[in-house]
Amino acid sequence: MERPGTFAELAEILASCGRDARTVRIVGGGTKQGWGTPQPVDVGVSTSSLTRIAAHNVGDLTAVLEAGVSLRDANEEFAAAGQMLALDPPDPGGATIGGIVATADSGPLRHRYLGVRDLVLGMTVALSDGTIAKSGGTVIKNVAGYDLAKLFAGSFGTLGAILKVAFRLHPLVRAPVTIAATGDDPSDVADCALDFVGLALEAECLDLSWDSGGGGVFVRLAGVATDGRARRAVEVARGRGLDATVADDREVWERRRAHQRADDATVCRVSVVPARITRLLALAQRLNAGVSGRVAHGAYFLRLDGDDDAVVAAIEETRAETDGCVVLDAPDAVREKVGVWGNVDERALGVMRAVKRRLDPAGIMAPGSFVGGI
């Protein structure tokens, strides 16, 4: 494993590998190495020495972080100034900024603050020919024709190495209040979730879950006048026949994040438009699966247990009933039997392959790890 201490050293490693046609994978905290379709590579390059918070502009609510900075360390720094980087994916062991951006990972805060692409202002990357390119924000030069920050977010390391990222920050959430509305009728739970989407709750988070014959809608409120908004949420939930109470804020959202990852089960990221939430819950009940996710964004995490053949059959049924289903965590046997990415638009694949050829002409950056074998 190579551990470059500077951007120039990392870029030179990529240039050398490009000249010799040696394949490369960039490694951060190693918390999502199994995602996508990872293939064996010749060289691993760690960002563990790129750990500077290069800038924190408190007055402008922006920061620039090197790729190896852990999200936990960054937010500890920002909290001292009453600020936060509004990303909260599950963190099973030191997820780094580079890895979070490369996989576009997120958590419940996505409801209010949106995803990685929406928080990134600019990025510095190293390409496989040794070029260090900059784009967006306050950086000096853009790569003509491409928004590198948006291209690299969610690219799974197949375009180049993320070196540092400029982010938009937000004020730290103060005195949050979480309402849990629970019940055993999937239609009532789904209707309550849709009601909450339509209410002017100004929620920080809004999640739905279903597991083992019961479920709930969870809404986090903060800022001014939380009491009035909380009462309104409780009234609406009880009007749908649900039990609604003020819940332990930390426990609720830790559990919601934890549902997104699994060491001993299969977790799929599923896309469902809000109007089809009831069908999603019915599917989860039929499959004896757990589901949790972001109501307003239609992004859910389906957790499947059982023998490999049963899980594969469940994934195939899920793909037939939803707008998209990507396998994240799964046993090797399951990954071998089912395509991780599901159905993909060939026209979109053509565009993505063209971008890959343009930014990684040597074809050495994590080849085969992304959709369509990119």
Description:
The chain is built from 13 helices and 17 strands. The chain is of the alpha+beta class and 374 residues long. 46% of the residues are buried. Helix 7 packs antiparallel against helix 10. The chain folds into three domains: 166 residues, 2-Layer Sandwich (Uridine Diphospho-n-acetylenolpyruvylglucosamine Reductase, domain 3), CATH 3.30.465; 80 residues, Ribosomal protein S10 (Alpha-Beta Plaits), CATH 3.30.70; 85 residues, Alpha-Beta Plaits (2-Layer Sandwich). About 1% of the residues have low confidence. The longest helix has 14 residues. The strands form four sheets. Strands 13-10-12-11-15-16-14-17 form an eight-stranded antiparallel β-sheet. The protein has a five-stranded antiparallel β-sheet with strand order 3-4-8-6-7. Helices cover 33% and strands 25% of the residues.
Morphology call: globular
Number of helical runs? Answer: 13
Spatial gap, N to C terminus? 23 Å
- CATH class of the largest domain, named Alpha Beta
Helix content: 25-40%
Total tally of structural domains = 3
Low-confidence stretches: 139-143
Q: What is the N-to-C succession of helices and strands? A: HEEEEHEHHHEEHEEEHEEHEHEHEEHEHH
Structural class estimated from helices and strands: alpha+beta
- What's the mean pLDDT score? 94
Number of strands: 17
**Largest sheet, order of strands side by side?**
13-10-12-11-15-16-14-17
Radius of gyration: 21 Å
